[in-house]
Every structure is written in structure tokens, then in C-alpha cells.
Design goal:
Strand content: 25-35%
Helix content: 25-40%
Shape: globular
Number of helices: 15
Mean pLDDT: 97
Low-confidence stretches: none
Length: about 425
């Protein structure tokens, strides 16, 4: 008698990430929203009786991509402040516009738009940082997308909160209300060292130790940020965070463009993670993060899009390809950040940064069924010597045909 299942997927290749490489003519069996089995296709058909069996000829099945840093609601600012350096972009355009327009409704609508764009491009999880995170969480749930919601903290008032204590109180209340939602997880999201006081960082550090949540913050994005920190605090931002006790396995530093060898070793020694956002860093002329040095030191790296206001696409296929090419060009070593490592950074390594690698990030029995089918049989993809290489250097988000989140079909044949 065959074992019942909900879904049997029969792609040409399964790319599980764990282990690296591609499995030809294998099946993925889904039951109760989880990956129940990965095995040769013939064995799956002999062993399981599924409510649905879906053949995916010419397609690669991969784990859902994870956007390790974004501001989803800022999709409504796409193209609004282009061709400006970061501080002018923020001070002259983004912050005034946010003061005028941002509300719960703005965040809900912008997050829904971003979720639709991301899921259509194979992104099943987003690590988000923005105002009104409860509205964002409700939008992600409406879309059926997995999200890590950042409890944003700033020292100055906004439409959302008045001061750091108010931001934290509202963020913690949001977490209490939504913490039973299986698609949602949470981070503390202090905006950046230049917008957070020592006292507030100290309180966040205490809370993250109590709750075991990641800290997700912008760090060393521009050279000016470092010079301002030296003037105000007599030390560089990462040194300041280290002295305040914030660095550790729960720390996700976003951008990390302007870091030196000692700071790379500091991040590695503390088991920190980096969210590398290559497109946004280039577009804002912030620079190129030293990914090769970070990888060689053993720092865990995931990729992020940043916001649609600074990218202007929420496209993780583009980030994988650009990250791999930048690392090679900047280092002079074509073997740096190979395709398999780029795909792992966009899946399992990002999941690890969010403390979600026991649930998502690879196609392994027992993990949640966050899965993406990518069409590699078009003329522009032929021939296929290595499907993993094609996923990074050939495929784009337009090749995504099917997306499942927690076993639920979210994108059906494009």
C-alpha cells in the first residue's frame, strides 16, 4: 500500500543546496506543508500516492530565495529619488517623503506590492525593516509570504513612534500579537549606529539576550558614516558596537562596505552575519563590500535587495549574479564566490542568519516546503552543462514558473 502525500514534484533537476549540486530525475514529496521526502522519481511514484503530481520537465526545483535585507513598503518610492548619494537621497528626498506620506495604509499597500513582486521572482522569505511593522506583517500574511519583521528603532519621531522607548514598546507589542503566526519571525532593527544612542543600543542588547532574537542593522555603508562616528565617539561604528556588546551570532550587519581587515576579523570572531546588497551599494555609489575577505575569514553572508527606492528591483536572481561577478572582478580571482556558493548565500546562509535554517533554506526532509521551480529549457538557456551555474549566471526572475510557501502554491505556471 502506498503512503499518502499531498504533492509529488517531478522536476528535471532538484537543487537541494544541502548537499551542493543537482540531482537529476529526482522527486520531492510534500505533506502537511513540509518536505516529506527527496528520492529518485521512480521510487517516489512506487512509494507514494499523492493528491497531486506535477511534472516540471526542463525545470530546476530550488529552495525559496531569501531576501536578507529589505524595506518592503518602500516599493511605493520606486524611482522617486534616483541618482543621488546616500545622505542626499535620505535627507533631501526619502525622509521628507516618509514624513509626509508614511502611514499604516501606506505600509500595508507597499508591502503587498513588494510581496507580489518578490514571490513572482522566487523569493519566499523577506527580512524586513520599516515603520508600522504590524501592518507589514498583516500584508505578508495576506500574501502568504514568510517574513522576519524588524522592530525598527530610531531616536527621532516619525508617524509611527515618538522616541526610542516608544519604538521598542510598539515593536514588542507587535511581536506579542503576531508571534504565533508560523510564517512570521522577528528581529530587533535599530536603524544604524548614527541614529541610535549608546543607551538605546544597551537596552536592545539586553532584550535580544532575553528573547534570543537577531539584531538587524545598517553598518559601515558609507565612508562619511565612519568619519562622523570618529568625530562623535572617537571610534569606528563596529568598534563602538563591539564595546557595547552587540556583536555575536545574532548580529546581522547590513552592507558592511567600508570595513577593514581588523573589522572583518572582528565580525568573524563574534560569529556575525552580513547582508550584502550589491545593487543598492552600487546605485547609491556607496562602494563594493569586501566579500572575498569576509568569506575567507568565515563570515556568513546572505544577499539582500535593500528597498525598491534604492535598487530599484526586488530581484534576488539579479543580486546573486551581480554579487558573484563583483566578487570576481574586485578580487581578480574568477574562482571566488562560485555559483553554488552564491545560491547557498541566497538560501541556506540567509536562513542561518535569521535562525531559520532548521526550517527553510534547503530541500531536506523535515523542512518547510518553500520551493521554487525555474525554467531552464528555453533557447536562451541551452545547453545546460550545469543547472546550478545556470541558476546564477543565466536564469532570471522571469524564468520562475511555480512558487510554494509552506506547501501552498503561490505562483502557478507564471
Amino acid at each position: 500500500m502506498k503512503t499518502p502525500a499531498d504533492l509529488i514534484l517531478l522536476p528535471q533537476w532538484v537543487v537541494p543546496v544541502e548537499p551542493a549540486g543537482a540531482l537529476a530525475d529526482h522527486a520531492v514529496v510534500v505533506k502537511d506543508g513540509a518536505i516529506h521526502d527527496v528520492l529518485p522519481a521512480d521510487g517516489a511514484m512506487a512509494r507514494y500516492e499523492a493528491a497531486q503530481t506535477l511534472a516540471l520537465p526542463g525545470q530546476a526545483l530550488i529552495p525559496g530565495l531569501i531576501n536578507l535585507h529589505g524595506h518592503a513598503a518602500m516599493s511605493l518610492f520606486r524611482g522617486f529619488a534616483d541618482d543621488l548619494p546616500l545622505m542626499a537621497w535620505l535627507g533631501e528626498r526619502i525622509w521628507p517623503a516618509e514624513k509626509k506620506h508614511v502611514s499604516e495604509a501606506f505600509v500595508r499597500d507597499g508591502t503587498l506590492l513588494a510581496a507580489a513582486e518578490m514571490m513572482a521572482g522566487g523569493v519566499t522569505t523577506c527580512n524586513d525593516m520599516y515603520f508600522f511593522p504590524q501592518a507589514a506583517g498583516e500584508a505578508f500574511l495576506q500574501a502568504g509570504m514568510r517574513a522576519a519583521l524588524g522592530m525598527i528603532v530610531l531616536e527621532f519621531p516619525s508617524a509611527y513612534a515618538t522616541d526610542a522607548d516608544d519604538y521598542l514598546a510598539k515593536g514588542l507589542a507587535m511581536r506579542d500579537e503576531l508571534k504565533e503566526e508560523p510564517l512570521l519571525s522577528f528581529t530587533f532593527a535599530p536603524h544604524a549606529p548614527y541614529t541610535i544612542s549608546d543607551a538605546t543600543f544597551g537596552r536592545i542588547n539586553t532584550l535580544t539576550e532575553q528573547l534570543g532574537l537577531p539584531i538587524h542593522t545598517h553598518i559601515h555603508e558609507t565612508a562619511d558614516e565612519i568619519q562622523d562616528s570618529l568625530k562623535q565617539y572617537g571610534m569606528r561604528p563596529l568598534e563602538r558596537l563591539a564595546q557595547l556588546g552587540l556583536l555575536g551570532p545574532n548580529f546581522i550587519g547590513v552592507h558592511a562596505v567600508h570595513i577593514n581587515e581588523a573589522e572583518i576579523e572582528l565580525l568573524a570572531a563574534h560569529g556575525c552575519h552580513v547582508a550584502h546588497c550589491p545593487t543598492s551599494n552600487l546605485k547609491l555609489a556607496s562602494g563594493i563590500a569586501p566579500v572575498t575577505g569576509l568569506m575567507r575569514a568565515g563570515v556568513n553572508i546572505g544577499f539582500g535587495t535593500d528597498s525598491a527606492a534604492s535598487n530599484n528591483r526586488l530581484d534576488m536572481f539579479a543580486e546573486m549574479r551581480l554579487a558573484a561577478l563583483l566578487a570576481k572582478g574586485a578580487s581578480g580571482d574568477a574562482a571566488v564566490l562560485p555559483a553554488a556558493a552564491a545560491l547557498k548565500a541566497a538560501t541556506l546562509d540567509a536562513a542561518r542568519a535569521l535562525n531559520l535554517d532548521d526550517r527553510i533554506g534547503s530541500i531536506v526532509s523535515g523542512k518547510r516546503a518553500d520551493l521554487v521551480a525555474v525554467d531552464l529549457h528555453a533557447l536562451s538557456s541551452q545547453p545546460v552543462f550545469d543547472p546550478v551555474s545556470h541558476l546564477v549566471y543565466v536564469a532570471g526572475r522571469e524564468h520562475v514558473t511555480h512558487v510554494w510557501v509552506d506547501g501552498k502554491l503561490k505562483l502557478n505556471d507564471r
